[in-house]
Design a protein that fits this description.
homodimer, Dihydrofolate Reductase, subunit A, 168 residues, 8-stranded mixed β-sheet, alpha/beta
Protein backbone atom coordinates (compact mmCIF):
# COMPACT_ATOMS: atom_id res chain seq x y z
CA UNK A 1 0.00 0.00 0.00
CA UNK A 2 1.28 3.46 -0.86
CA UNK A 3 0.65 6.63 1.12
CA UNK A 4 -0.16 9.90 -0.68
CA UNK A 5 0.16 13.15 1.24
CA UNK A 6 -2.38 15.70 -0.02
CA UNK A 7 -2.06 19.38 0.96
CA UNK A 8 -2.69 22.92 -0.21
CA UNK A 9 0.06 25.54 -0.01
CA UNK A 10 -0.10 29.28 -0.53
CA UNK A 11 1.94 30.66 -3.45
CA UNK A 12 4.61 31.83 -1.00
CA UNK A 13 5.00 28.24 0.15
CA UNK A 14 3.23 28.19 3.49
CA UNK A 15 0.79 25.49 4.53
CA UNK A 16 -2.48 27.08 3.40
CA UNK A 17 -4.73 28.54 6.05
CA UNK A 18 -8.13 30.08 5.58
CA UNK A 19 -10.50 32.63 7.05
CA UNK A 20 -14.07 33.71 6.27
CA UNK A 21 -12.61 36.27 3.83
CA UNK A 22 -10.12 33.77 2.37
CA UNK A 23 -12.00 30.45 2.22
CA UNK A 24 -10.37 27.24 0.91
CA UNK A 25 -10.30 27.15 -2.89
CA UNK A 26 -13.20 25.21 -4.44
CA UNK A 27 -10.85 23.66 -7.01
CA UNK A 28 -8.63 22.30 -4.23
CA UNK A 29 -11.57 20.84 -2.28
CA UNK A 30 -12.91 19.14 -5.42
CA UNK A 31 -9.45 17.71 -6.07
CA UNK A 32 -9.39 16.35 -2.52
CA UNK A 33 -12.75 14.61 -2.99
CA UNK A 34 -11.52 13.13 -6.28
CA UNK A 35 -8.42 11.72 -4.59
CA UNK A 36 -10.38 10.44 -1.58
CA UNK A 37 -12.87 8.62 -3.82
CA UNK A 38 -10.04 7.11 -5.87
CA UNK A 39 -8.29 5.88 -2.72
CA UNK A 40 -11.54 4.87 -0.99
CA UNK A 41 -10.30 6.42 2.23
CA UNK A 42 -8.55 9.26 3.95
CA UNK A 43 -6.55 9.76 7.13
CA UNK A 44 -7.13 12.98 9.04
CA UNK A 45 -6.43 14.63 12.38
CA UNK A 46 -9.35 15.12 14.76
CA UNK A 47 -9.39 18.92 14.68
CA UNK A 48 -9.09 19.02 10.90
CA UNK A 49 -11.94 16.50 10.53
CA UNK A 50 -14.17 18.47 12.89
CA UNK A 51 -13.38 21.55 10.79
CA UNK A 52 -14.37 19.67 7.61
CA UNK A 53 -17.73 18.68 9.12
CA UNK A 54 -18.36 22.16 10.56
CA UNK A 55 -17.80 23.77 7.13
CA UNK A 56 -20.37 21.49 5.49
CA UNK A 57 -18.12 18.62 4.35
CA UNK A 58 -19.38 15.05 4.37
CA UNK A 59 -22.63 13.53 3.14
CA UNK A 60 -22.47 12.07 -0.35
CA UNK A 61 -18.81 13.04 -0.74
CA UNK A 62 -17.76 10.91 2.24
CA UNK A 63 -20.13 7.98 1.58
CA UNK A 64 -18.39 4.61 1.19
CA UNK A 65 -15.03 6.04 2.33
CA UNK A 66 -12.98 4.55 5.16
CA UNK A 67 -12.28 7.66 7.22
CA UNK A 68 -9.51 7.19 9.77
CA UNK A 69 -9.17 9.89 12.43
CA UNK A 70 -5.95 10.08 14.42
CA UNK A 71 -6.85 11.32 17.88
CA UNK A 72 -5.26 11.18 21.29
CA UNK A 73 -8.59 11.56 23.08
CA UNK A 74 -10.06 8.38 21.52
CA UNK A 75 -13.54 9.92 21.62
CA UNK A 76 -15.91 8.22 19.16
CA UNK A 77 -16.85 10.06 15.97
CA UNK A 78 -19.82 8.69 13.95
CA UNK A 79 -18.71 7.41 10.54
CA UNK A 80 -15.02 7.36 11.38
CA UNK A 81 -12.51 4.89 12.78
CA UNK A 82 -10.40 6.32 15.60
CA UNK A 83 -6.74 5.35 15.91
CA UNK A 84 -3.90 6.80 17.94
CA UNK A 85 -0.89 6.86 15.59
CA UNK A 86 0.14 7.12 11.91
CA UNK A 87 1.31 3.49 11.98
CA UNK A 88 -2.03 2.30 13.35
CA UNK A 89 -3.89 4.27 10.66
CA UNK A 90 -1.82 2.68 7.89
CA UNK A 91 -2.15 -0.79 9.40
CA UNK A 92 -5.94 -0.43 9.57
CA UNK A 93 -6.24 0.60 5.90
CA UNK A 94 -3.77 -2.05 4.79
CA UNK A 95 -5.76 -4.76 6.56
CA UNK A 96 -8.95 -3.48 4.92
CA UNK A 97 -7.27 -4.17 1.55
CA UNK A 98 -6.68 -0.60 0.36
CA UNK A 99 -3.94 -0.04 -2.22
CA UNK A 100 -3.56 3.66 -1.41
CA UNK A 101 -3.87 5.62 1.82
CA UNK A 102 -4.68 9.32 1.36
CA UNK A 103 -3.33 11.65 4.05
CA UNK A 104 -5.42 14.82 4.22
CA UNK A 105 -4.04 16.87 7.15
CA UNK A 106 -3.62 19.04 9.11
CA UNK A 107 -0.07 20.33 9.19
CA UNK A 108 1.05 18.50 12.33
CA UNK A 109 -0.17 15.17 10.98
CA UNK A 110 1.45 15.77 7.58
CA UNK A 111 4.71 16.58 9.29
CA UNK A 112 4.54 13.49 11.52
CA UNK A 113 4.24 11.28 8.43
CA UNK A 114 7.06 13.17 6.64
CA UNK A 115 9.39 13.01 9.63
CA UNK A 116 8.70 9.29 10.09
CA UNK A 117 9.35 8.68 6.39
CA UNK A 118 5.87 7.24 5.78
CA UNK A 119 5.05 9.21 2.61
CA UNK A 120 5.37 7.67 -0.88
CA UNK A 121 3.83 10.45 -2.98
CA UNK A 122 2.95 14.09 -2.44
CA UNK A 123 0.10 16.03 -4.08
CA UNK A 124 0.26 19.78 -3.56
CA UNK A 125 -2.25 22.32 -4.76
CA UNK A 126 -0.79 25.81 -4.85
CA UNK A 127 -3.41 28.50 -4.21
CA UNK A 128 -2.95 31.94 -5.83
CA UNK A 129 -2.63 33.81 -2.56
CA UNK A 130 0.16 35.14 -0.36
CA UNK A 131 -0.36 34.29 3.31
CA UNK A 132 1.25 34.75 6.69
CA UNK A 133 3.16 37.42 8.57
CA UNK A 134 4.61 39.92 6.09
CA UNK A 135 3.39 37.63 3.25
CA UNK A 136 6.94 36.33 3.44
CA UNK A 137 8.88 33.48 1.90
CA UNK A 138 9.95 31.16 4.72
CA UNK A 139 13.39 29.67 5.04
CA UNK A 140 14.13 26.72 7.31
CA UNK A 141 17.77 27.06 8.23
CA UNK A 142 17.99 24.77 11.23
CA UNK A 143 19.57 21.35 10.63
CA UNK A 144 19.71 21.53 6.83
CA UNK A 145 18.66 18.28 5.23
CA UNK A 146 17.25 17.49 1.82
CA UNK A 147 15.73 14.68 -0.20
CA UNK A 148 15.36 14.82 -3.99
CA UNK A 149 11.89 13.86 -5.20
CA UNK A 150 10.47 13.21 -8.67
CA UNK A 151 7.85 15.41 -10.34
CA UNK A 152 5.19 13.09 -11.77
CA UNK A 153 2.70 15.66 -13.01
CA UNK A 154 1.84 19.35 -13.06
CA UNK A 155 -1.48 20.81 -14.19
CA UNK A 156 -3.74 23.80 -13.68
CA UNK A 157 -7.02 23.12 -11.87
CA UNK A 158 -8.52 26.49 -12.82
CA UNK A 159 -8.80 29.85 -11.04
CA UNK A 160 -5.05 29.97 -10.56
CA UNK A 161 -4.75 26.73 -8.57
CA UNK A 162 -1.71 24.69 -9.68
CA UNK A 163 -1.57 20.94 -9.00
CA UNK A 164 1.85 19.33 -8.38
CA UNK A 165 2.30 15.58 -7.98
CA UNK A 166 5.62 14.15 -6.73
CA UNK A 167 7.04 10.71 -6.02
CA UNK A 168 9.13 10.73 -2.83
CA UNK B 1 8.63 50.48 -13.81
CA UNK B 2 7.46 47.14 -12.46
CA UNK B 3 9.35 44.97 -9.98
CA UNK B 4 9.53 41.19 -10.46
CA UNK B 5 10.56 39.04 -7.51
CA UNK B 6 12.41 35.92 -8.71
CA UNK B 7 13.04 33.00 -6.34
CA UNK B 8 13.39 29.24 -6.14
CA UNK B 9 11.41 27.26 -3.57
CA UNK B 10 11.71 23.61 -2.55
CA UNK B 11 8.66 21.42 -3.24
CA UNK B 12 7.70 21.65 0.43
CA UNK B 13 7.52 25.42 0.06
CA UNK B 14 10.70 26.60 1.75
CA UNK B 15 13.01 29.19 0.26
CA UNK B 16 15.46 26.92 -1.58
CA UNK B 17 18.86 26.41 -0.07
CA UNK B 18 21.76 24.44 -1.49
CA UNK B 19 24.80 22.44 -0.51
CA UNK B 20 27.60 20.74 -2.44
CA UNK B 21 25.42 17.60 -2.57
CA UNK B 22 22.28 19.58 -3.46
CA UNK B 23 23.46 22.33 -5.85
CA UNK B 24 21.05 24.90 -7.34
CA UNK B 25 19.09 23.48 -10.27
CA UNK B 26 20.62 24.29 -13.69
CA UNK B 27 17.14 24.94 -15.12
CA UNK B 28 16.44 27.54 -12.42
CA UNK B 29 19.78 29.31 -12.96
CA UNK B 30 19.19 29.46 -16.72
CA UNK B 31 15.74 30.87 -16.07
CA UNK B 32 17.28 33.56 -13.86
CA UNK B 33 19.76 34.58 -16.57
CA UNK B 34 16.90 34.74 -19.10
CA UNK B 35 14.91 37.05 -16.82
CA UNK B 36 17.95 39.19 -15.99
CA UNK B 37 18.80 39.68 -19.68
CA UNK B 38 15.16 40.55 -20.46
CA UNK B 39 15.08 43.14 -17.66
CA UNK B 40 18.63 44.37 -18.33
CA UNK B 41 19.33 44.39 -14.61
CA UNK B 42 18.97 42.68 -11.27
CA UNK B 43 18.88 43.73 -7.64
CA UNK B 44 20.69 41.49 -5.17
CA UNK B 45 21.92 41.42 -1.59
CA UNK B 46 25.67 41.60 -1.00
CA UNK B 47 26.10 38.11 0.43
CA UNK B 48 23.96 36.53 -2.29
CA UNK B 49 25.96 38.37 -4.98
CA UNK B 50 29.27 37.26 -3.48
CA UNK B 51 27.90 33.70 -3.49
CA UNK B 52 26.96 34.03 -7.17
CA UNK B 53 30.50 35.16 -8.07
CA UNK B 54 32.14 32.50 -5.88
CA UNK B 55 30.16 29.73 -7.60
CA UNK B 56 31.28 30.88 -11.05
CA UNK B 57 28.46 33.27 -11.97
CA UNK B 58 29.16 36.40 -14.00
CA UNK B 59 31.18 36.89 -17.16
CA UNK B 60 29.17 36.86 -20.37
CA UNK B 61 25.92 36.24 -18.47
CA UNK B 62 26.25 39.48 -16.51
CA UNK B 63 27.65 41.61 -19.35
CA UNK B 64 25.57 44.72 -20.12
CA UNK B 65 23.41 44.26 -17.03
CA UNK B 66 22.87 46.96 -14.43
CA UNK B 67 23.64 45.04 -11.25
CA UNK B 68 22.45 46.79 -8.10
CA UNK B 69 23.77 45.45 -4.80
CA UNK B 70 22.00 46.42 -1.59
CA UNK B 71 24.63 46.58 1.12
CA UNK B 72 24.93 48.25 4.48
CA UNK B 73 28.71 48.27 4.37
CA UNK B 74 28.86 50.38 1.19
CA UNK B 75 32.09 48.63 0.15
CA UNK B 76 32.72 48.92 -3.60
CA UNK B 77 32.18 45.86 -5.79
CA UNK B 78 33.57 45.97 -9.36
CA UNK B 79 30.80 45.91 -11.97
CA UNK B 80 28.02 46.67 -9.51
CA UNK B 81 26.27 49.76 -8.18
CA UNK B 82 26.00 49.83 -4.39
CA UNK B 83 22.89 51.23 -2.73
CA UNK B 84 21.61 51.03 0.83
CA UNK B 85 17.85 50.38 0.52
CA UNK B 86 15.18 48.79 -1.71
CA UNK B 87 13.79 52.25 -2.52
CA UNK B 88 17.22 53.50 -3.59
CA UNK B 89 17.70 50.44 -5.80
CA UNK B 90 14.37 50.99 -7.56
CA UNK B 91 15.02 54.72 -7.94
CA UNK B 92 18.43 54.05 -9.54
CA UNK B 93 16.97 51.59 -12.10
CA UNK B 94 14.00 53.85 -12.81
CA UNK B 95 16.28 56.81 -13.50
CA UNK B 96 18.37 54.62 -15.83
CA UNK B 97 15.20 54.09 -17.89
CA UNK B 98 14.49 50.43 -17.08
CA UNK B 99 10.91 49.19 -17.49
CA UNK B 100 11.41 46.19 -15.20
CA UNK B 101 13.48 45.65 -12.08
CA UNK B 102 14.39 42.03 -11.34
CA UNK B 103 14.80 41.14 -7.68
CA UNK B 104 17.03 38.09 -7.30
CA UNK B 105 17.49 37.52 -3.56
CA UNK B 106 18.36 36.41 -0.96
CA UNK B 107 15.50 35.66 1.38
CA UNK B 108 15.87 38.71 3.63
CA UNK B 109 15.88 41.05 0.64
CA UNK B 110 12.87 39.33 -0.94
CA UNK B 111 10.99 39.64 2.32
CA UNK B 112 11.90 43.33 2.71
CA UNK B 113 10.38 44.06 -0.69
CA UNK B 114 7.28 41.94 0.07
CA UNK B 115 6.74 43.54 3.46
CA UNK B 116 7.13 47.03 1.99
CA UNK B 117 4.67 46.19 -0.80
CA UNK B 118 7.21 46.87 -3.56
CA UNK B 119 6.58 43.70 -5.63
CA UNK B 120 4.40 43.74 -8.77
CA UNK B 121 5.00 40.21 -10.05
CA UNK B 122 6.45 37.01 -8.60
CA UNK B 123 8.30 34.28 -10.50
CA UNK B 124 8.83 31.08 -8.51
CA UNK B 125 10.70 28.02 -9.68
CA UNK B 126 9.78 24.96 -7.61
CA UNK B 127 12.66 22.49 -7.34
CA UNK B 128 11.84 18.76 -6.99
CA UNK B 129 13.40 18.42 -3.55
CA UNK B 130 12.22 18.39 0.06
CA UNK B 131 14.39 20.57 2.29
CA UNK B 132 14.71 21.67 5.89
CA UNK B 133 14.30 20.24 9.35
CA UNK B 134 12.11 17.11 9.14
CA UNK B 135 11.49 17.92 5.44
CA UNK B 136 8.37 19.58 6.83
CA UNK B 137 5.63 21.78 5.46
CA UNK B 138 5.85 25.14 7.23
CA UNK B 139 2.89 27.02 8.57
CA UNK B 140 3.04 30.70 9.50
CA UNK B 141 0.38 31.18 12.16
CA UNK B 142 1.43 34.48 13.67
CA UNK B 143 -0.63 37.51 12.62
CA UNK B 144 -2.60 35.84 9.83
CA UNK B 145 -2.83 38.05 6.76
CA UNK B 146 -3.40 37.23 3.12
CA UNK B 147 -3.41 38.81 -0.32
CA UNK B 148 -4.95 37.11 -3.37
CA UNK B 149 -2.66 37.11 -6.40
CA UNK B 150 -3.22 36.16 -10.04
CA UNK B 151 -1.55 33.20 -11.75
CA UNK B 152 -0.21 34.44 -15.09
CA UNK B 153 1.61 31.33 -16.25
CA UNK B 154 2.74 27.85 -15.24
CA UNK B 155 5.20 25.71 -17.18
CA UNK B 156 7.74 22.92 -16.70
CA UNK B 157 11.38 23.92 -17.19
CA UNK B 158 12.59 20.30 -17.31
CA UNK B 159 14.07 17.93 -14.73
CA UNK B 160 11.09 18.42 -12.46
CA UNK B 161 11.46 22.20 -12.07
CA UNK B 162 8.07 23.96 -12.24
CA UNK B 163 7.86 27.65 -13.15
CA UNK B 164 5.05 29.74 -11.63
CA UNK B 165 4.44 33.37 -12.60
CA UNK B 166 2.04 35.54 -10.57
CA UNK B 167 0.76 39.12 -10.69
CA UNK B 168 0.54 40.61 -7.19
Amino acid sequence: MKTILWATLSANGNYAQSSPENPPKKEALEDFITHAKAAGNFIVGRKTFEGMLASGGGGEDFANLDIVVISRSNKEIPGATIVSSPQEALQFLNEKGHHTALLSGGADLHNSFLTENLVDEIVLNIAPVLEGKGLNLLINKSKYTFKPIELLNVKSLGNGVVHLHYKV
